[in-house]
Amino acid sequence: MERRERTCRCGYTRSHEMVVEEPEYTLWGWILLSMFGVTPKPDHIVYRCQICRQSLGSTRNPAVLARRTVQPAPPGTKS
Ligand SMILES: [Zn+2]
Description:
By secondary structure, the protein is of the alpha+beta class.
């Protein structure tokens, strides 16, 4: 069984710098984003080449999702 990493048509893998993690939101996520300006937790992450826009797969890994979510400052925090 072949275990080569998936590449886009440019030959880039997920780890290449031109392949970025693009958060994809649910419809509700988009509503939050556009109406309230808050960054919702992405539904999933798509690895996409910035050159050819080809997707190299997606992930729902909670750790990856959390990394893409802007955490609001906890209440009561003073700077
Ligand atoms: Zn590409």
